[in-house]
Amino acid sequence: MRCTYTCSLLRGLCAALLLAGGFSATPAFAQAKVVQTPYQNPKVLIDIYLNDPQKLSSALYWLRGLVNPLTEAPYSMFPEDMNIVVLMHGTEIVTLARKNEERYEEVVQRMRYYAGMGVKFKVCGLALKDFQYNAEDLHDFVEVTPSALTELMHWQNQGYALITPQVNEKKYSNEELR
């Protein structure tokens, strides 16, 4: 009997609050909060080591994901405000050879665009020898370094954040996943 009385009181209180506008009949859901992290002086080393040169196109989206937000409002950074180094030492090296420009035209154009913005593209000299290339075989926006490992060490010792793009095979379209 006591439970019936208490439940009845609670129902009456809820009805009164609903009528008074104190509660909504549907639950209120919080919305995601947009934040503007105060980015300053970005120093980034993007380490690319791929098992298939065709994956370089996807890996370069990581560079786009870094550069585009920083150059657009509210940050509106100029390219000279960013220190970005892209280090390559896997099969993607073949995309940098001038003789392969037609085959990899799209990624070469994208790299050339970013190089024009001040992004430094470096290739491992040891890996270059593995592919039997030398500096003269590469595009003019590429710098050859002694070794990828010594470059990784050097730039990290200079305070550069290390980003290593992960390129996975996409099984489903965005529409299928939604």
Provide structural commentary.
The chain has 178 residues and is of the alpha/beta class. The chain has a domain at 43-163: DsrEFH-like (Hypothetical Protein Ychn, Chain: A), CATH 3.40.1260. It has helices spanning 2-20, 56-71, 105-116, 125-130, 148-157, 174-177, and strands spanning 43-48, 83-88, 120-124, 142-145, 161-163. It has a 5-stranded parallel beta sheet, with helices on both faces. Strand 3 (120-124), helix 4 and strand 4 form a beta-alpha-beta unit. It starts with a helix and ends with a helix. The model has no long low-confidence stretch (mean pLDDT 88).
Radius of gyration: 27 Å
CA-to-CA gap between the ends?
50 Å
> What does the main sheet amount to?
5 strands, parallel
CATH architecture of one domain, by name, is 3-Layer(aba) Sandwich
Give, in spatial order, the strands making up the sheet with the most strands.
4-3-2-1-5
Compute the number of strand runs.
Answer: 5
Could you tell me the mean pLDDT? 88
CATH class identity of one domain: Alpha Beta
Shape annotation: globular
Q: Provide a count of the helices.
A: 6
Strand content: 5-15%
Give the SSE order as H and E letters. HEHEHEHEHEH
Q: CATH H level of one domain: which superfamily?
A: DsrEFH-like
Category by helix and strand content: alpha/beta
CATH topology of one domain: Hypothetical Protein Ychn, Chain: A
Q: Low-confidence segments, ≥5 residues, pLDDT <50? A: none
Helix content: 25-40%
